[in-house]
Design goal:
The complex is a heterotetramer of chains A (362), B (321), C (508) and D (308). Helices cover 73% and strands 0% of the residues of chain A. Chain A is mainly α and 362 residues long. In chain A, helix 4 packs across helix 10 and helix 5 runs antiparallel to helix 10. The longest helix of chain A has 30 residues. The relative contact order of chain A is 0.20. In chain C, the strands form 4 sheets. Chain C has a 6-stranded mixed β-sheet, with helices on both faces. In chain C, strands 15-16-17-13-18-19 form a 6-stranded mixed β-sheet, with helices on both faces. In chain C, helix 14 crosses helix 15. The chains are: A mainly alpha (362), B alpha/beta (321), C alpha/beta (508), D mainly alpha (308). At the A-D interface, helix 6, helix 11 and helix 13 of A face helix 4, helix 10 and helix 12 of D. The complex binds adenosine-5'-triphosphate (2 copies) and magnesium ion (2 copies).
Chain lengths: 362, 321, 508, 308
């Protein structure tokens, strides 16, 4: 069943895509919607025009990109930070606070201050689970999930309370100062400089992981903490702490960039769960920061296309979500089969899960 | 996508944005029905998008406005900042923001004065309560919810100045179980008439009341947003309703005459958009004097002779900057 | 009349660009112990893997008891009566020994019941019979490699498979244990079973095997009765006729002779590491080391013999700075090489390539880059150097370490650690899994580095007494968490054995 | 706290804890086999809709519960086919399955009950009080005057514990989750074990959803699972992958949520968002005081076999 080498993998990959397309089409058709129109709308909404691509797809990709990087760097070190969502909120809170309080400052001071504050706040939010992991031995998976809920509710509290707009009616903060806003990256479009910042972060992160001693330690601890300790004299605790904080900072930056680039104020429900989708973004990129740029744009396109499917093809949101899920599964299956092909070229298929005679244990 | 139809005189394009599913049998469902009413009564070409995040709001406005939509209903106060931005960019499109607080020539807040209905509900609640304790279960404390609760409490006090009013929020519009537990907790504290503003999760409140009744207690519920009397006809005394579809139709007609814009639209009892509807099946349990008292107050409100307290939030209103 | 129990013919199996099996054959009779020999990477584990159902051949036939079979997994192999003891451990670390021994045993039939109750008495009987003793109720992750190896062997023996296949089971056993294991294998053969055994020590194989098969580069180059071969002929078959002359040194080590010149001690120089009254505790809190004091000088090879679990592990971790003592003072240098007991867990990162595995040791070396940056080309050169010097068989240094044969992984670790041992080398069973030539080479290297002026001191912790005897300039025995100096007169297998046993019961 | 308040609080704690317990015990079994199914939310919402449709079709809440379990299992089957069959990444697959579950249930609901929805009244699974036990002061009614699904969760905890730690099958399951290569070498059918453990987890999550719809809310609403799948995953960790502790952890979490509602009803004048955060803060505090390291199954979330 999984035996394939050479060209067959492409066939299988194409078949997986086709099968998913058929499933999606049949589903839509059964629901009484026009699959062709849906597909056309999805495409045009994501890539159809330069405007759609730049002002919607790329704009949507920014939070995926930064939170995706946050997850990627953490997972590289074996830190299972599921908390990008909460860290994002922490960053957004800090950004909006600095952006309002610092209104007197010139842009060249205020804007960096806003972004740095966002990063620091994200790192601070990550510090709690990091310390619980290192000092108390409490696994970060659960603590980061819990911190997400705390962060979301904390932001909600702030916009109803201390940070609420001055007239005290709507659950949102005041808008940040003009000097705190990220300028447009492409003039006339909605794409802000935050996208460039995020891409730069991806490149920096890739370089750090590949070319620096610290990055190597991160990878070693992630691949085998025991060997990193025994063979490399690497202090896993220090690496975990630093990576956790860096990851939190990136997620916090995602919140800050969203505020400074797009919404200019903090609202309840700022993020629809980017911090969770980020895990998929990062893993699909095989935790490679540069590839995260690609997968983030893919998810941005998916969201952009989903909106267009509703608007242009009249497909209800719930159907659109179901189609999104199918697309993710299709991409995943295709990606998996392609990887199998690459490896299959070296290792002919074994379908009973045959392993190397001498499996190295992680 | 029907470009040629748009050219036909008389047709126009209307879009609806909601921040939640239109299958909530409540707030968003009403708006969706309104959109369909525009299609059916005015021949409008319609489209709907459900958006989730503030960042998406701008994008949806931009997409609709730039593809030639004339009238965009954004059904929730959360859209107002994005609508103001979009209004500046697209002067030829009109943006109607339900519960919005700011306006411009082409940005129009559509204020549903549901407080008027919920004030009447408060009267019924206090009149029907034996314990002197009534409860309110909300989803998220947004101004429309806070406003209705404020009015509910005020209405209740006119009937029983000593009434105790409990208030809980679940933080969610979908979590039926949480709404039910919030209601159970209030019932446990002695509340015996409950009103809600939790949209799709409201059934949890009714279910809690039903179970209290089934266990031999006495308790009642009140519906909100739309006529929910037949959702749980055994326990719902009446509902504070907004006739959103009719109101949308009215707004669209005004737009067609070219007189929409530059000021907020208030849609209340006097416009016949807001009302309180007693459950015909339970009419016999509500004392006639209470019904009479409530009806009298309703007429005062309709006539504009009684102003129900509300949380002011529209620019230019007293107390709003 | 001895029936052919298993017959493998014309097996071919490639891994990427590496051809592990290039037409290998193996025929195993009931009633025999069959030794399989070959250099590191010759394809022994792959061949045995085919028999054990873990490797699928691309070409070739497999017959068991005369029937052609296709094994789709280890489960199939068990059903056909083949039990395989892997070269690398296949135990579940977080389960107890008894649970590991029980795993997979006819769970289908009695899945409701806990098998441990039935397995415990059987395990105890088997321990008594084989002389392999393990703590049944301890977690495997708390065991050292010797115990793990014993568990692996017991696990296979308990199922009494008609065909028992053992891939390098003896590398970390004590001589006495090897003897009793071999007695048992002989007995199994007498019962009509077939035993296939891989080991690198030719003398060991010849001591127990009825017949031997030699693999070279994935091909079967020789199969013979024990009587028909001598060690020299076997080595020639393993390395090829032309190479044989160059490997003459290797033969000595393989046959138990002394190779590495214990000359370094003459140059013993400045002290590089000091332990002064140190203690160390196990995870359980029990004392592992009691008041140990030791000085290591440049140029000396300090051999530490002893039954595993008497504190050797803690001693190694202290000397390499991996552990700081709760009491006492440990002064250790910077340039420390460490060859750990279990290469797959502590020595290499399987998913890293050879260069990255090299970087594990070099990443904080000032030469490995400037400032925060790493100089990968330089590290690659170093990896290339280790690869060619230690003959690590791999397609290239960009290959993942987990694809290397066991011996080649060990060569990588040894090469790398010798490279960084400027001041001190701490080696736990350094030649475990190495073939004859590689063992000799490593021994020679240890001799070489310690005889150079300013060379490091070496601490050699090994269960292989011959190795310890051959290489050490100073000999210690570790027992009950204490170090005993072996007097000159006792430097024999027997003398050391007495010292070891004397301390078998820790007096703490 | 006055006695009635306490009793009401405990009752609410159990009601809120039971669906978490069911889903989390199932997930604990799945995770013990080395599979992390974060598509649990999809199974829960699937179970809720399946339960609602089943109960409506038959007019019988018990039949609805079975349908709910079946629906949860089907959702988990999709997850299993991808993540175990194709070896796709479990986290991404789970994300997609959650999305798909929420979307498809919404689509089916809208197709069946109209685009603007209907407030459904479902046949409910009434509480059954256990004679004697329910009379125990304080905790009697809380524990023993509950829906049948609650008793199922009490019964499952020790049963699953026994299965995991006292049977050969449980041993195989744990081995598969810790060291699949080793388990395979011992002759265990790794993928088969993982497959069924995943389906079992899905079925229990479906039960949790059916409980929400039929025993708790008495209705179905889109997204009514409201993130319980993620909470259940946290509960598994809090319960250290041990069914008995998982039950306790779920009830504790239920208690923290119930406390929040009680405090609001008491009229405490604090921002309600802080109450909403309370269960999570209490859980964090519990973890900080919960000494000793708990460790996830070593092979959790890793695709197997590693190479193919
Ligand atoms: N990743 C690590 N980080 C820090 N310390 C470690 C790590 N791994 C192991 N250790 C420490 O190394 C010491 C020994 O490790 P381990 O328990 O694995 O050895 P062992 O197999 O028990 O040794 P022995 O042969 O003495 O039984 C322990 O004190 C442990 O704390
Ligand atoms: N899973 C694998 N992936 C890539 N290469 C492999 C794999 N398994 C084995 N090889 C390669 O096949 C060759 C034969 O390996 P094998 O393990 O059979 O050797 P061996 O004779 O057992 O050696 P050793 O004495 O070192 O254990 C080696 O070159 C090894 O690198
Ligand atoms: Mg081998
Ligand atoms: Mg040990």
């Amino acid at each position: 069943m999984y035996e394939h080498g050479g060209r067959t993998a492409w066939v299988v990959g194409a078949a997986a895509l086709a099968a998913t397309a058929v499933v999606a089409a049949v589903l839509l058709w059964v629901g009484g919607y026009d699959p062709a129109r849906a597909a056309a709308a999805m495409w045009s909404g994501a890539f159809g025009t330069r405007g759609a691509f730049v002002s919607v797809t790329l704009v949507r990709s920014v939070p995926f990109l930064l939170t995706g990087l946050a997850v990627a760097v953490a997972f590289r070190a074996g830190v299972w930070n599921i908390g990008a969502e909460g860290q994002l909120y922490a960053g957004a809170i800090a950004a909006v606070w600095v952006g309002i309080e610092g209104a007197a400052l010139p842009a060249w001071v205020l804007l960096p201050a806003v972004l740095i504050a966002a990063g620091l706040a994200g790192a601070l939010w990550a510090l709690i689970p990091a310390l619980m992991k290192l000092r108390l031995g409490v696994g970060e998976v659960i603590t980061t999930i819990l911190m997400n809920f705390v962060g979301i509710n904390f932001a909600a509290y702030l916009v109803h309370g201390p940070l609420q707009e001055p007239r005290g009616v709507f659950p949102q903060t005041e808008q940040i100062a003009d000097a705190a806003r990220l300028p447009a990256l492409v003039p006339g479009s909605r794409l802000h400089v935050g996208f460039a910042v995020a891409v730069a972060m991806a490149v920096v992160l890739a370089a750090v992981l590949r070319w620096t001693r610290w990055g190597f330690r991160v990878r070693a601890v992630g691949a085998s903490p025991r060997a990193a300790w025994a063979a490399g004299r690497i202090d896993a605790g220090a690496v975990v702490l630093a990576t956790f904080l860096a990851s939190g900072a990136l997620a916090g930056l995602a919140g800050g960039v969203e505020i400074a680039g797009l919404t200019y104020a903090l609202y309840e429900g700022l993020s629809p769960g980017w911090g969770y989708t980020a895990i998929a973004v990062a893993l699909l990129a095989a935790l490679n920061p540069v590839a995260v740029v690609g997968t983030a744009i893919l998810f941005g396109a998916l969201e952009a296309g989903a909106g267009a499917m509703q608007r242009e093809a009249g497909i209800p949101a719930v159907w659109v979500v179901a189609v999104e899920a199918l697309v993710i599964l299709a991409v995943l299956a295709t990606d998996q089969l392609m990887r199998t092909r690459v490896r299959g070229a070296q290792t002919p298929g074994d379908d009973e899960g045959n392993v190397s005679p001498e499996p190295a244990r992680a | 996508t029907g470009q040629q139809d748009a050219e036909t005189p008389g047709t126009f394009r209307a879009a609806l944005l909601t921040a939640g599913p239109v299958s909530d049998a409540g707030w968003y469902a009403g708006a969706y029905e309104g959109l369909l009413l525009l299609r059916d009564s005015l021949g409008a070409l319609v489209s709907h998008q459900q958006t989730r995040t503030p960042a998406e709001f701008d994008e949806a406005f931009l997409s609709y406005a730039s593809s030639g939509y004339d009238l965009i209903f954004a059904h929730g106060f959360e859209y107002q900042d994005a609508a103001m931005r979009a209004g500046e960019r697209f002067p030829n499109t009109t943006f109607v923001v339900s519960g919005g607080g700011r306006f411009a020539d082409n940005v129009v807040p559509l204020i549903f004065e549901l407080e008027e209905g919920s004030y009447l509900a408060g009267m019924i609640a206090a009149g029907m309560s034996r314990s002197g304790v009534v409860g309110m279960v909300g989803g998220v404390a947004i101004p429309p919810v806070e406003g209705t609760f404020l009015a509910f409490e005020a209405g209740a006090r006119t009937v029983n100045p000593d009434v105790q009013v409990l208030e809980s929020f679940t933080g969610s519009w979908d979590d039926v179980a949480a709404a039910k537990e919030a209601a159970v907790a209030q019932l446990g504290r002695g509340a015996d008439v409950l009103i809600h503003n939790v949209d799709a999760a409201s059934f949890g409140v009714f279910q809690a009341v039903r179970e209290t009744v089934a266990a031999g207690g006495t308790a009642w519920a009140l519906g909100m947003n739309r006529d929910q009397n037949d959702v749980a006809p055994d326990v719902i005394l009446g509902s504070a309703v907004i006739r959103i579809p009719e109101s949308f139709l009215e707004t669209a007609s005004t737009w067609q005459t070219g007189t929409l814009g530059g000021r907020p639209i208030y849609a209340g009892a006097s416009e016949d958009v807001i009302d309180f509807v007693l459950n015909p099946q339970l009419l016999d349990v509500v004392p006639a004097e209470l019904v009479a008292e409530m009806t009298a107050v309703r007429e005062l409100i309709r006539a504009g002779e009684l102003t129900v307290p509300r949380v002011p939030f529209v620019e230019g209103e007293p107390g709003v900057r | 009349m001895t029936p052919v129990l298993a017959s493998l013919r014309g097996l071919v199996r490639r891994f990427g660009s590496v051809t592990a099996l290039a037409g290998a054959n193996l025929e195993v009779f009931g009633g025999e112990v069959h030794g399989v020999l070959g250099e590191n990477g010759a394809g022994k584990s792959t061949l045995l893997g085919v028999l054990g159902g873990v490797v699928r051949p691309e070409e070739g036939e497999l017959e068991i008891s005369g029937q052609p079979v296709e094994l789709r997994g280890p489960r199939d192999a068990w059903r056909h009566g083949v039990g395989l003891v892997h070269q690398h451990f296949t135990l579940v670390p977080s389960l107890t020994v008894l649970e590991n021994l029980s795993l997979g045993r006819d769970a289908g039939a009695s899945g409701f019941a806990l098998p441990q109750t039935r397995v415990r008495p059987a395990a105890e009987r088997m321990m008594a019979r084989t002389g392999l003793s393990v703590p049944l109720d301890e977690l495997v992750e708390d065991l050292g490699v010797g115990d793990r190896q014993r568990v692996e062997i017991l696990k296979a023996l308990l199922r009494e498979p008609p065909i028992l296949v053992l891939d390098e089971p003896t590398a970390v056993l004590t001589p006495a244990e090897v003897d009793s294991l071999f007695d048992l294998l002989r007995e199994l053969a007498r019962q009509g079973r077939a035993v296939v055994l891989v080991a690198h020590k030719i003398e060991e194989v010849l001591a127990v095997a009825d017949r031997v098969t030699v693999l070279r580069r994935g091909r079967t180059v020789l199969t013979s009765e024990r009587g028909g071969v001598d060690p020299h002929r076997l080595v020639r078959a393993m390395v090829g006729e032309d190479a044989a002359t160059q490997t003459a040194v290797g033969l000595g080590a393989a046959t138990g002779g002394v190779v590495g010149e214990a000359s370094g001690g003459l140059l013993a120089g400045e002290v590089v590491a000091t332990l002064d009254g140190v203690r160390a505790n196990r995870a359980s809190g029990a004392a592992a080391l009691v008041d140990v004091s030791l000085q290591i000088r440049r140029g000396e090879v300090v051999g530490v013999a002893g039954v595993e679990g008497n504190g050797q592990r803690e001693l190694a971790l202290l000397l390499t700075g991996r552990l700081s003592p709760p009491a006492g003072v440990a002064t250790v240098p910077d340039g420390v090489g460490f060859i750990p007991q279990d290469r797959t867990v502590e020595g290499i990162v399987g998913e890293f390539d050879l260069v990255e595995n090299m970087a594990l040791a070099l990443h904080d070396d000032p030469d490995a880059g400037r400032g925060m940056w790493l100089d990968w080309p330089w590290i690659r050169q170093e990896a290339e150097a280790v690869r060619s010097r230690f003959g690590v068989v791999a397609p290239d240094v960009g290959a993942r370490a987990e694809g290397l044969s066991g011996g080649n992984q060990q060569r990588l670790v040894v090469g790398r650690e010798l490279r960084r041992a400027r001041d001190l080398l701490v080696a736990e069973n350094p030649t475990r899994g190495l073939d004859v030539a590689a063992t000799a080479f490593v021994h020679a290297e240890i001799g070489r580095i310690t005889s150079v002026e300013g060379g490091p001191g070496v601490v050699l912790l090994s269960t292989d007494l011959d190795e310890v005897l051959a290489l050490s300039t100073r000999l210690l025995v570790m027992t009950g968490g204490r170090l005993l100096e072996v007097p000159e007169g006792s430097r024999t297998r027997e003398g050391i054995g007495r010292l070891m046993l004397g301390g078998l019961q820790p007096d703490v | 706290m006055p006695e009635t308040d306490l009793v009401l609080f405990l009752e609410a704690a159990v009601r809120l804890g039971v669906p978490l317990a069911l889903a989390a015990m199932g997930e604990a079994i799945t995770e013990r086999s080395g599979i992390i199914n974060i598509g649990l939310e999809g199974s829960i919402i699937g179970g809720a809709l399946g339960g609602a449709l089943g109960a409506l079709a038959t007019g019988n809440a018990a039949a609805g519960v079975l349908a709910g379990a079946g629906a949860g299992l089907l959702v988990a089957m999709v997850f299993a086919l991808f993540s175990i069959g194709l070896r796709t990444d479990q986290i991404i697959t789970g994300t997609a399955v959650t999305l798909g579950g929420l979307g498809l249930t919404g689509a089916v609901y809208q197709a069946r009950f109209g685009a603007t929805g209907t407030a459904l009244t479902l046949p409910t699974l009434a509480p059954m009080s256990v004679p004697g036990l329910s009379q125990i002061p304080w905790i009697g009614s809380a524990l023993f005057d509950q829906a049948p699904t609650a008793y199922l969760s009490y019964a499952l905890a020790p049963l699953l514990w026994y299965y995991l730690f006292r049977t050969a099958w449980g041993l195989e399951l744990r081995a598969v989750g810790e060291a699949p290569d080793a388990a395979q070498a011992a002759g265990v059918r790794v993928r088969w074990v993982r497959f069924w453990a995943t389906l079992f987890g899905g079925a229990l999550a479906g039960l949790a959803g059916a409980h929400l719809a039929l025993a708790h809310a008495g209705t179905f609403a889109e997204n009514m699972s409201a993130g319980r799948g993620f909470i259940a995953i946290a509960v598994v960790v809090l319960g250290r992958w041990n069914p008995l502790w998982v039950l306790v952890a779920a009830l504790l979490f239920g208690a923290a949520s119930a406390l929040q509602f009680l405090l609001q009803a008491l009229g405490l004048d604090l921002p309600y968002q802080l109450f909403l955060a309370l269960p999570y803060l209490l859980t964090l505090a519990a973890l900080a005081g919960w000494v000793g390291r708990s460790r996830a199954p070593a092979a959790l979330a890793l695709p197997w076999p590693k190479e193919r």
